[in-house]
Specification:
It comes from Marinomonas primoryensis. This is Sigma-70 family RNA polymerase sigma factor. This protein is mostly helical. Helices cover 68% and strands 0% of the residues. It is built from 8 helices and no strands. The two termini are 27 Å apart.
Length: 184
């Protein structure tokens, strides 16, 4: 993909997808499929199943594009949430065998990033890591388990031996602290 997509351009594409614009949907897919595949694959660890789930994710994006609200989340955050939730549903639905060993990592890499974009992204990651380190224990570990490894709230409650309501509160407060730390 040669064109860089900003939050605004992705939001515009989503608004066109909400009007059933197939060309906009194709462009949205090209701009975001690698990132969403990475999210799905990180949880499922099986390439073929991840590809199937990703198709279902884009079907949901097509169906729910009119529900996107730019005041609530960025387009990529909204789509990543759909991907994460659909993937967790898949994990709950099936007992999954061990992951594939052959992964086409070209599907995950983001070749559209310029060196300046890559530098900015690495600075953002360093900031995020510093902000995560500044969270009270065990909130950092909990946020990573929830948003990177796909743990459900109930699985976190079991893992950390805490009531479900406490887990929800800790996650909410932890995310708010991260947003404040990162000035979002």
């Amino acid at each position: 993909m040669s064109e860089q997509h900003t939050t605004e351009s992705l939001a515009h594409l989503l608004s066109r997808v909400a009007q059933e614009d197939r060309h906009a949907f194709s462009e949205l897919y090209q701009a975001t499929h690698r990132k969403l595949f990475g999210i799905v694959y990180r949880i499922l660890k099986r390439q073929s199943l991840s590809e199937e789930v990703l198709q279902e994710v884009y079907l949901r994006i097509w169906e729910k594009a009119s529900a996107y609200d730019a005041h609530v989340a960025s387009p990529i955050t909204w789509m990543a949430t759909i991907a994460r939730n659909r993937t967790i549903d898949e994990v709950r639905k099936n007992q999954l065998p061990e992951s594939d060993t052959d992964v086409d990592f070209d599907l995950i890499a983001d070749d559209s990033m310029t060196p300046d974009d890559s530098f900015a992204k690495s600075r953002e990651l360093l900031t995020l890591e510093a902000c995560l380190a500044g969270l009270e224990s065990p909130r950092s570990e909990m946020i990573k388990a929830a948003y990177l490894d796909g743990y459900s709230r109930q699985e976190l409650a079991d893992r950390f031996n805490q009531p479900l309501g406490t887990i929800k509160t800790w996650l909410h407060r932890g995310i708010k602290q991260l947003q404040g730390c990162m000035n979002l």
